[in-house]
Design a protein that fits this description.
- The complex is a heterodimer of chains A (348) and B (319).
- Chain A is α/β, with parallel strands linked by helices and 348 residues long.
- Chain A contains 12 helices and 8 strands.
- In chain A, helix 2 packs antiparallel against helix 11 and helix 2 packs across helix 12.
- The N and C termini of chain A lie far apart (48 Å).
- Chain B is α/β, with parallel strands linked by helices.
- Helix content of chain B is 38%, strand content 18%.
- In chain B, the strands form 2 sheets. Chain B has a 7-stranded mixed sheet with strand order 2-1-3-4-6-5-10, sandwiched between helices. A 5-stranded mixed sheet of chain B has the order 7-9-8-11-12, with helices on both faces.
- Classes of the chains: A alpha/beta (348), B alpha/beta (319).
- Chains A and B meet through helix 6 and helix 7 of A and helix 3 and helix 4 of B.
Chain lengths: 348, 319
Amino acid sequence: MATARVAEPSGSLGEVKEWGLDREDLLGIYRNMLTTRSIEERGHILYKQGKIPGSFYTGRGNEGASVGVATAMGPEDVGTPLHRDMGVHITRGVEPWRIFANYMARIDGLAHGRDGNVHMADDHLGLIAMVSHLPAMLPVAVGCALAFRIREEKRVSVGWFGEGSSSRGDTHEAMNFAGVRRLPVVFICDNNQWAYSTPTHLEYAVEHLADRAQAYGFEGVVVDGTDVLAVHREAKRAIEKARDGGGPTLIECLTLRMEGHAVHDDAFYVPKELFERWAEKDPIERYRVWLHENADFSDAEEEEIKLSVKKHLNDALERADQSPLPHPESLTVGVYADPEELDTPHHK
Amino acid sequence: MTYLQAISDGLRQEMRRDKRVFVIGEDVGVYGGAFKVTLGFQEEFGPWRVLDAPLSETAILGGATGAAMMGMRPVAEMQFADFISCGWDHLVTVAAKQHWRAGSPVPITVRLPSGGGFSGGPFHSQNPESSFAHIPGLKCVCPSTPADAKGLLIAAIQDPNPVLFFEHKHLYRRIKGEVPDERYTVPIGKARIHREGEDVTVVTWGAMVYTADEAATQLGDLSVEIVDLRTILPWDKEAVLTSVRKTSKLLVLHEDTHTGGFGAEIAATVAEQAFEDLDAPIKRLTAPDTPVPFAPVLEQAFIPQVSDVVAALRELAEY
């Protein structure tokens, strides 16, 4: 039986403003979503040019969910975004040239050539680099929240996972512990309906994954992940509740993974009509229309943003391409941290 | 004070000194831990610094990792070292690799009551240190004396890396020794010469130090040097090589099973770097490649006994 609350779609400009977004913020969201998609589109080109070693993953279709949640986070909040959440890195302020450098295994990538794709994060921006064992990041996010709770700080941690990750024990342990201790953590499920080739009905038997929240003693919410403002509203509500001592929330953002699992995968197993149906709900297009209809978004403004994103990424790509590859001799450096590295704002 | 009291003492001192240090584990709070290492801690430090966790090793170790990244100094207790298998990912996949690939230090200490000798059976007796010694990014500490237990625990908590602290259960209340009252550290990666000798070297750690010592005492006519490694990742190669160059004969002794045990690494290193100093083939004395048994008679056959060490040393001496 479904117990999660199903969130309303985004409303008028007036309602959006109640959740703390002014017009400048709204345009910023559009810019971030566009930047997110454009980076990944260019990543595809780089991959085809042979400039990206290994494989290549994108989050096409998840731009609204990732940017929506990240926009709701406070500057001191932290999170563990995954490989469909480029929008979180962009919204938190990671410079695109460093992302391109990371794709190309260059020294100026956030992982300095030691790890690829979106296995990267800038911890100065409150983000923690993901591992491939995706649900493993949830207990880490809970641990961040535990530190905030022990120190009685008004900070919140956001942990991301997918519907595939929901099947693993890490997810259960993280949510149970967070619920027991009412920790300031918000769980975001990027439910894009396909875990590689596995559909949702082979992954879980409940109606909504967010229904599981009730079993852990907190609220579950299902939101249309293509509706960036609805995602923002639900994330904001959950984050502020956690900040005020109200404990965790599980938000399930429903989207469709609009490409294969990775660049090698043509997603032949996804019904064509499903792609067509969800293409009509494209999060960027949907938001663009909303801005025109609700926020006096002019064609000139739209054009200006598109051009500036394009130019920004052109420059970023050029800069990234100048970044050197890591030196083989650097391989063994940094397996262990030195004591002075703990002399950071986090660790004092 | 006992080995167990020394661990409590070190942990308590560090918690008093540094409010970032907290304890998390199963039954560590009200109950004081399965072995009572944290008895009375919750009264002194409160429920948010001595956290009773749900039965969730993954949440305990993953949570400790996240809290450490946020500037805390978690000391996570596995109720028995055996249960660390449930939290493998968080140590090996996240904590061990985070600094190398993402530049974030993960200063966590994991306390692991390990070892057999009292019919704990296959799941309450293991010595899993060798598995973790294979993981770049972790440190593995295995103290044998009360003074080392305290000093190494404080060093582990201070260390900016994930440190696994293997405390041998069979030493908890059996072994007593002088322990300084003040706070001090014992450096991670430095061996200790437990007993000086001329004829043969025994390299070992943890409870086997005492087994080796008793064997050496029984062999009055043979001069045995016992090197207590104290930590196996990193391990003190120089101390081992120096001793082997002096005695020319080496017995590697550990309670863990044989194949791929850390003794193999020691033997290989000595063979590579001190081959010409050896007067006999290197000998390994370990548990056999089986799970740890329950019946006392089987367990005695599993854990290297004093008589086994005596026989191995005689064999080496007579080579």
